[in-house]
Each structure stands twice: as C-alpha cells, then as structure tokens.
Amino acid sequence: MWATPSLFEVTEPPSRHVRSAVDVAFAAWAVLLLYATFVMRGYETVPYHLLFVSFAAVYGFRVWSLPVTAAVLGAIVVSTGVVFYAHWLEDELPGDEMFEIFLMPLILGAMVWHARRRVVAQRQVEQLAGQERDRRLHEHELARDTSHALRTPLTIARGHIELIRESTDDELVRRDADVALEELDRIGRMASRLLAIAELERPDALTPRAVDVAGLVRDVHDRWSVSVNRRWSLEAPESLTLHVDEDVLRIVLDALVENAVAVTGPEDEVRVVCRPFREAVLLGVADSGPGISPGDSALVFQRFWRSAEKREGTGLGLSYVRAAAEAHGGTALVARSSLGGAMVGCRLPLSADGPMPATDVRTGANA
Length: 367
Known about the structure:
This protein has helices at residues 16-39, 45-61, 66-89, 100-166, 171-200, 213-225, 246-262, 317-327, and strands spanning 209-212, 231-235, 241-244, 269-277, 280-287, 331-336, 342-349. The chain contains 8 helices and 7 strands; from the N terminus they run αααααβαββαββαββ. The chain is 55% helix and 12% strand. By secondary structure, the chain is an alpha+beta fold.
C-alpha cells in the first residue's frame, strides 16, 4: 500500500563507479575518433559523425553538469573544427562540409537542452513522490491516532450518560440521554471505521486466502434479506474463488448493502451482485432507490460524504470499500443501475487459482 504510485516511478541513477567508467571510456573513444578524423582524409565525416553520436549516447546515460557539458562539447567542436579547417585549406575537404562544424553542435545543443529538462522534471517527480509518501503517512497516522484517542473519552462519556439515565424517572431526561447515547455510538462507529480504513493502508494489512466469494455473497444476501424489509434479489454463480481477505471482504459487502438499505424503502428492490467482469470480478449492490447524481459520482467514496437521501450513518462505509478494493489491487466503482437507482461496488482481480464461470459479462451500469 505504501508503494509509490506509478506516476512517480523514477529510474535509479547509475552508481558513481559506473559513471566514472563511462567517462573514461568515452574520453578514450573520443580521442580515437578525433585521430581517425585527422588521418581519414576524404572520409573525415564518418568518424566525425560517430563522435557526436557517441556524445549523444553517453549524455543520454550520463548527464554531466552544465560546465562539464559545455567544456566537453566545446573541446569536440574546436578540435574537429581545426581538423576540418586544415583539410579544407589543403583542398581535401569540400567547402559545403564546413557547415558541419556549426550544424552538429547545434543539434547536440538542442539534445542537451532537452536532456537537462528531463533531469529537472525527474527531480520534480522525485520531490512529488516524497511529498505524496509523506502525505499518505501523515493521513494514516492521523486517522489511527484520532481513532485511538476518541475511544477513552467516548467510553467515559457513555458511562456517565447511562448513570444519569438510570438514576432519573424524568421521561424527558431519559429521551435526551437516549439521543446522546445514539450519537456517542455513531461517533464510536466512525472512530472504528477510521481505524479500519487506516489499517488497510498498511502493507501487511490483508491476510489473503482462497475464498469462495460467490458463497460469501450468498451468505451476506441471506443474512440481510431476513432482517430488513426490502424486495431482495441475488445474482451470483455457483462458485467463484478469489484470493482475498475474507473478513475484509465481508465488511465491504455489509457496507455496500447497508448503503443501499439506507437510501431505499420497503417497496424498493436491492440486488446483491457477484459476477465476472472482464479480467476481474464485480462485487456490488444495486438498488431501485433515488440513485446518485452525476455530480456526486466522484464524491461517494470520499470520507464523511453522505447523500441528501442518506441522513444516517457515518459517511465512512464506502470509503472503506474503496480502501479495501485498492488494498486487494482492485478499484471501487459507481454506476446507474437497471433497477433505476445506483450500482455501487468494486472490481477485484481474478485469482490465478480460481475458475471463471461461463456467465454473461456485462457492465456495472446494467446491474
């Protein structure tokens, strides 16, 4: 989880010994080509072009500092220019070849400019990668520390409110105490969810094993369908095995069902889905509720986000879904459902050991 995002991946620079060896080899090769330029009268341009090509190849591997670059390029231009001029004076070099003295350095100069821009860009990318790692680490530590710090005062506050409730016969005080206890429970669930999300960002957070996710989906469907009054349906193959963390995936499915239940009523349909989706498996819950507006589609997985229809809850369930999906190497998704509401779920990569049933593969928008 702490791996650097692909946007920030950079190439490891060559070691100091390798750079020194390249410098020495290029110096020897340049002297040899300069000598060949002097002795190969009539064919001076062959070693001459090889010299500049060699400079370009070495510079692409070993970007010198600006003073060193200017010195090396200047030495090549002056030495080869002297040779060309001498051969031209002796009528052994056509006059139009003299333009090479100015043309090749200009081409090399443009190449050097682009190479140095690449170096600057690479350093900026490395800096951004470091900032991103620091941000992720700070966010992880903040969520973990905040969740831990909230538990003790919440426990103490709950104990005092329960004592107040039990020690009075005033019905109004009891109702107020019940409201306070409900809010404390909600804050406690938020703290636990924040801690769970933070834990998913650890590199060793998951304990994957071969799990029949189709069976797991059926179990979640059966458990919710007998306890919540909705028109329930299930779409799942007989068996579908993935290498996943079963406990984490069960929490994900519960969060998805809970989200659908929160925005629907007894007359609405809720469909729990598990099916192959391209090179992955789609796990999701579709509903016939009010759906999600296009403007909110990019917000549903943000922490503490709740739709206008979903007044209750912590606003962290779908954030956990996204964190769990990414920890498994998958992605979270939201789309419009054919039931009329929303389809919210995740795509998880297929296990190499798990069979893919021969079922129709459709898009999440058709669920």
